[in-house]
Amino acid sequence: MLLMAAWGMASCSEEKLQKAATEHDPEKVPTMVTHDAHTIVSDSGRTRYRINTKLWNIYSEARVPHWTFPNGLVADELDEKFNNKASLICDSGYYDIQKRMWSAVGNVRLTMRSGDRILCDRMYYDEKTTVVNCMDNVRITRTSGDKIETNQMFYNTRTRRTYGDTFIHIEGSGRVIEGYGYEYWDDSQRYVVRRVQGIFPIDDRRFRPH
To answer: What's the pLDDT tens digit per position in 78-95?
Structure first.
């Protein structure tokens, strides 16, 4: 009976320790939780982003320190005068602190520095390389009026170059261009499609009132 009692006490103690360890597991329990957050984030001594979110979890003690925004995120990139340069809206977000990598999932809406607007299902932004990677059901509306559909788009915010290797459908300026592999430069507003599948004229007169 004493052995049974001792085993029972050890078992209970072990269970409590495991439960306590789980409750304080830095991989599962955030270091800090903020509700209805409206804040400004600085990097290297300069204000970089304005963040609005319903829930912000910070896992600073995790093996991979990160932030999560499970209930949606609105993030604005700011210039030196706190004016918006670009913005991101999504259903949920993630930020890898060490890699300085942003991830956004679900109804992703981007307004780029050029003023172009992008809708997609997933987006990744690497602060180190300044490259935006939009994936799945990508739809772009340019300030020129062109509308673009593709499945993946890379955009280098430093060189202001858009590129990709997947199928692209470009509609605007009275024509439709389809092909695989493309590049676009904001400065010249010029497209290069490597493997053109077809160029089709659009008769805009049928959309004009008589």
So the answer is: 887 788 888 999 999 999
CA distance 90 to 71: 9
DSSP summary character for residue 202? -
- Is 117 within 8 Å of 143 (Cβ atoms)? no
Distance between CA atoms of residues 121 and 112, nearest Å: 16
Q: How far is the CA of 81 from the CAs of 1, 40, 45, 191, in angstroms?
A: 75, 13, 14, 33
Residue 202 binned pLDDT confidence (cut-offs 50, 70, 90): low
Cα-only R_g, the chain: 24
Taken in order 21, 26, 31, 35, the sign of the CA dihedral is negative
Rounded alpha-carbon distances, angstroms, from residue 100 to 15, 68, 170: 38, 13, 32
Does the pLDDT value for residue 125 go beyond 60? yes
List phi, psi (to 5°) of 57.
-105, 130
CA–CA distances in Å: residue 69 to residues 39, 42, 176, 209: 14, 18, 39, 47
- Is 118 exposed, middle or buried (CB count within 10 Å of its CB: 0-12, 13-18, 19+)? buried
